[in-house]
């Protein structure tokens, strides 16, 4: 029986290990290049009043305040957070008992922080956000007040 010299066996083992190392290096290689992506276009939210609601959840009278309800629609394909709801013009009145050119109604800016899903909507209730001063005309009794607002959003 012939024995392989120790140097020969060691040489074979080293050759096998080096070959495995080269094969491993081939699998672990890396390269460089460029990648591209594209940002979407943010769309402004839209707002509506709650159907059948008088904008305020409770009745206003001079010296009082009430909750405001507003529905915010998110037309974007990603979720957003409502960061603020602020007045954007003068409130108008309809259905009062007489002339109501001076409503005396104001809206306090709110920061609800409410999340709205992609292509979704939510109805916000802004507690105590509407108030009526004593400047309100007598004809504003039983009126429904529409308060124009601006809604600010950020991506969630």
Please describe the biggest sheet, giving its number of strands, its sense, and whether it closes into a barrel: 4 strands, antiparallel
Can you tell me the residue ranges where pLDDT is under 50 for at least 5 consecutive residues?
49-54
Mean pLDDT over the full residue set: 76
Number of helices: 1
CATH architecture: Sandwich
Query: What is the count of structural domains?
Result: 1
CATH topology: Immunoglobulin-like
Structural class: alpha+beta
- Using only CA atoms, what is the Rg? 34 Å
Order of helices and strands: HEEEEEEEEE
* β-strand number: 9
Distance between the termini: 78 Å
Strand order of the largest sheet: 1-2-7-5
Helicity level, as a percent range?
10-25%
Strand residues, percent: 25-35%
Choose one word for the global shape: elongated
Under the CATH scheme, which class? Mainly Beta
Description of the molecule:
The chain is α+β, with helices and mostly antiparallel strands and 156 residues long. Helices cover 14% and strands 33% of the residues. The chain has one helix spanning 6-27, and strands at 46-48, 65-73, 80-87, 92-94, 105-107, 114-116, 121-132, 144-146, 149-155. The strands form three sheets. The protein has a four-stranded antiparallel β-sheet, with no helix packed on it. A three-stranded antiparallel β-sheet has the order 6-3-9, with no helix packed on it.
């Amino acid at each position: 029986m012939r024995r392989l010299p120790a140097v020969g066996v060691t040489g074979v083992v080293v050759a096998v290990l080096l070959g495995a190392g080269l094969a491993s290096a081939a699998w672990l290689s890396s390269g460089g290049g460029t990648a591209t992506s594209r940002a979407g276009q943010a769309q402004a939210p839209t707002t509506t009043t709650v159907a059948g609601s008088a904008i305020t959840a409770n009745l206003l009278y001079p010296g009082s305040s009430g909750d405001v309800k507003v529905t915010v629609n998110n037309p974007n394909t990603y979720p957003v957070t409502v960061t603020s709801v602020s007045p954007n013009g003068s409130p108008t009145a309809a259905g009062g008992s007489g002339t109501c050119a001076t409503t005396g109604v104001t809206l306090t800016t709110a920061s609800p922080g409410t999340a709205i899903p992609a292509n979704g909507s939510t109805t916000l209730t802004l507690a105590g956000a509407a108030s009526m001063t004593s400047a309100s005309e007598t004809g504003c009794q039983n009126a429904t007040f529409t308060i124009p607002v601006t809604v600010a959003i950020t991506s969630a």
